[in-house]
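pasting for ref
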Amino acid sequence: MTDAEGFDAWYSDMERSPRKDEIQQRHLGLPAHVQSSSLLTWDGIAEVIERLRLLPGETLVDLACGRGGYGLEVAQRTGATLLGVDFSAVAIRQAREHATRLGWTAEFRVGALEDTGLPDASADAVLVVDAIQFASPPEAAFTELRRVLRPGGRVALTCWEALGADDDRLPERLRRVDLRRGLTAAGFGDVVVEDRPSWLENELAMWREAAALDPGDDPALAAFHEEGEAVLGFGALERRVIASATA
């Protein structure tokens, strides 16, 4: 699943599957109001906030924001102004509706990792949670991150990197992820990339539960189940990472 149409269907299915959300939130330690479509833990949110160094009133762009849960939480804790961008129109609709339910102010719009449609130097910080691997080509996304950030602005990314870049047991999109190289080539400084094995442990426990469940006629649970079976086949071949850098 790599195109907007595929993700539109995926998000539509999740809207009718509270059980899938409950399993994911439980393993990641997330409260129910953090409507996640990625795999950042509750502790991980705090670390992202520390790395972004946001001040009240500054602009945070949550790129590939999905249903908006992580960006909304970061903005609420820091007092930042949130702009979420995703190429799935269904995800953007759900993010807007979720912000309204919470009573939190945010803007969400359709745009791509490689082409956000945002002005140059319009963001004080950019967050990309578990999505940079979907950019095509990957270099375009790093260049776009640098373009929309003001000088001195911060970026934080979470993702997975292959332990062996030539290991064809991993999906190709993960084998091409190299956050340090991508950020450095795009002109960022102060690049820090660190392993987070405890995050991966939480994820693999979640995928084991997903792979063992009977999805019945729930399409979101069926996709969750199939992804669990797939990830368990290569989870030991990757490392979980967080990266940050300064424009």
